[in-house]
């Protein structure tokens, strides 16, 4: 699901990497990248794993945190995580494979499969792959939160998608739609006369020898599957999406190491031909077919990001340098973009910093002076500042509540969202900074 850009963390969809400073000359420094993950783990900022591959060789793989917090089960390199929307890249590969085999055509229309969907005679397979179909994204609806943990049949999902209708004329613009990729998985099942899960195994997993990748089901911690968490005053277990719901839009589980192997194979033409890979890479609005792009220095990385429940993920690939990166988290209390930049900087021999975190402990007396309802006239947003014990919370109107970590007296941060908040208690104001922009808030009297 996608959330509001202001304050919230991007979860599924497009994540942009920041460009950095001039290049360094050092070789790959494993110990330094280890230090980044150690710092994040010690400060309850990240649970999960990352992997890097260069020229087809795995150069780094490390996991940190717990796969099961309640049982204190440590994650390892073979721990399996839900990868969310990275599943869309797998689905796009299967569609391209079907196109190569003559089982479907990218320009054929949806009415061949689902004539009851609005504009079906105008919507092509290519539109579904590139999020230009106009089909409404059912995960955006408030009602989705009431049923996503329950099993859904194909007919129920198709009815939900059909009833939601169309948001715009097919092909006229980009709008991220999980609905389109759910339909693609059903189309694949129809033309191959087998399940989506079986297709993933037979056409991707087995040929590449991926040992820890499959379509997921209910999480089983006993088989080294990770549960997912959000952080408030500790790691809180998240609900589980029933995997019958996301299908080819988000139902796969994997590991960072399997993902870099998958991406290396994909861009080397080992899954589909290089002509199909080039088709996937064709961009409009920075979006291809099951791929999006990420800028990094002067490089253009291809890949995808994902988010489901408390899991977040990203994989990227530089076809020229043959550098592959993957990150999957089952608990993120940090800006995942910053971790991605650090890992890619290590791979490209660019400078980066090991994150340091403040140990400042705010007292309840200090925090009480900051509590109240605040409003920004600049953006018309209301935020309530509250506390639980010695943890400060920002309750954002329409977006829920976010914990703020004390970094100094009257200074707080939400690292996961890239937010800094500085209070001026005497003036009963605070300044919120995010992504290079600052906004002033005043307490309602």
TrEMBL record:
Name a Pfam family for this protein.
Beta-lactamase
Q: Which UniProt keywords apply?
A: Signal
Recorded protein name is: Beta-lactamase family protein
Signal peptide interval: 1-25
List each coiled-coil range: none
Q: Which organism is it from?
A: Sediminibacterium roseum
PANTHER family of this UniProt entry?
Answer: BETA-LACTAMASE-RELATED DOMAIN-CONTAINING PROTEIN (PTHR46825:SF9), D-ALANYL-D-ALANINE-CARBOXYPEPTIDASE/ENDOPEPTIDASE AMPH (PTHR46825)
The record's annotation in InterPro entries points to: AmpC-like (IPR050491), Beta-lactam-related (IPR001466), Beta-lactam/transpept-like (IPR012338)
At the top level, the lineage of the source is Bacteria
Which residues belong to any copy of the Beta-lactamase-related domain?
Answer: 50-343
